[in-house]
Amino acid sequence: IKTDFEVIVTFDWYSYARVILPNTYSRAVCGLCGNADGDPQDDFALPDGQQVADAIQFADSWKVADVPGCGAGCTEDCKVCTEAEKRAYRGDKHCGLLVKKRGPFAACHSAIDPAPYFDDCLFDTCLYEGHQETVCRSLSAYVTACQSQGIRIKPWRTVAFCSLVCPPNQHYELCGPTCPATCRGQEAAEECEEAKFCAEGCFCDQGFLLSGDRCVPLSQCGCWHQERYYQAGEEFFACPRCSERCVCKGDGVVECQPAGCGADEVCGVQDGVRGCYPQDCGRCQVLGAVSYSTFDGRPLRFAGTCAYTLAAVEDAGLEDPLVPFVVEMEKENNQEAPAIRRLLVTVHGVTLGMARGTQWEVDGEQHLLPLTLAEGAVTVTQEGTHRVLQVQGGPKLLYDGQNYVVLTVPSTYRSRTKGLCGDFNGDASNDLTTPQELGAAWGTLTPTCTHGSPPPTCSSDTPGPCGVLAEATGPFAGCHRVVAPQEYVAGCLQEQCGREDAAALCRSLQAYAAACQAAGGELQEWRAAAKCPLSCPPNSRYELCARSCDYACAGLSADTRCTDKCFEGCRCDEGFLFNGAECVPAGSCGC
Length: 591
Prior knowledge:
The protein is α+β, with helices and mostly antiparallel strands. The chain folds into seven domains: about 1-80, no CATH class; about 85-150; about 170-220, Laminin; about 225-275, no CATH class; about 280-445, no CATH class; about 465-520; about 540-590, Laminin (Ribbon). It is built from nine helices and 32 strands.
């Protein structure tokens, strides 16, 4: 980003950001980057101007928002590498390449001191136990700084060291143009001044032009419409009220038609895209072994032990904007407490399966999390103790790996769903409720399973230990404003009906905790008083607000998308990362 007053901001989409100012801003700026007065000794200034020595105190003073699951710094069991441990990464195969006197970066040493980059590289690489991607990003940061000064860098990447894999129709260049040819440039003057320096990266092959983030031949270039560029085939709303929908045809032609949002939709912007989005959503829940709640809010008491369609939406043809899907649930053959044995989700041509205690399966093959499928339309992440599956424009499923499932669908799916979750038509009275009806309509009966008989109904007059969910001053009080507890209290009582089951109680309380955090509620510590400790695997610890995908091996090499919520669960210890199944030393992460 470049302004007409010569402030430049750059970002590599991962961890390297720069703010470049003209000298006229000296002593006129503040923040983490300091005051730009040429003296590094006075950079640790708080917003009130007070000087401090502690880096965390200084950095935390410039915090602009609280992000769930994030803290000011490491507070316990903090891993700090010794100089002896860092020594292993001083050689040419790691950070030493930065300071090598006759190395590929030598021409830059006199202009930009490599020492700070070298120290940072050693710190990060040692912490991540030599993971090559960490080394590559440190070296790439120095390359960017040098090339921005017009200094030529010698080749430093090899097939075996920091090789850069480019997308289709692109190739790597050490010194490529800063203003590459684009499709937009064929229609209007580029707002790009060719710099005196070059930059390394992926560039379009001969005969291809940059179209957004892809390289295409000229014949597949998009359209220039109302001062914006759109890729070929892209559909978009051209006005703020969504009253006109356009599509970019071939040869740069834009065709527009009158449009509008549906009764359950609102015109707005989500993830940077203007469109018609659902105003609300339907939520179906499996609250325990025998307790359910339909999209329309009708409670079900069902002890079936077969396989059932939880929810499904059929494909209605090419003109249907809804994403069709099927969610199936297989129960264990235990009449007293038929727990979930496996969930199956079929969407966008793939079937994802999750059995208790195992990895996700895609079309029968086991996969580690996080998962991205169908060109980004389907994502699966680990959030605390929960697995979260999201489909763009379609359903979202949260599963705790045991007995709690919450399935949400946008309001555009009204009257289109079928299954145990009901038809989502706003009328709870027509949802099936008896075991015979539910089993016959949505179950698959086999000789080894049964649809069961109606479980006994338990009184809610004396909620007992389940009552903690509704206590006005209890640990769940901060949840009441976003998720009413009554339904969960009833489900908890049903799970306890006729027996005292401590494990079932903990699962019921955990279900409400998950619903609370998914809705953005303020959950307090509850496990100690309820005697529901969470056992964490080796090299991890319990946290009330954990975001597992922030500390995943996949985050070292690729962009991983977490949800915007945090969930209680186990978080890897300092120096360990989640590899999709367990916490491992960062140096043991895969590819």
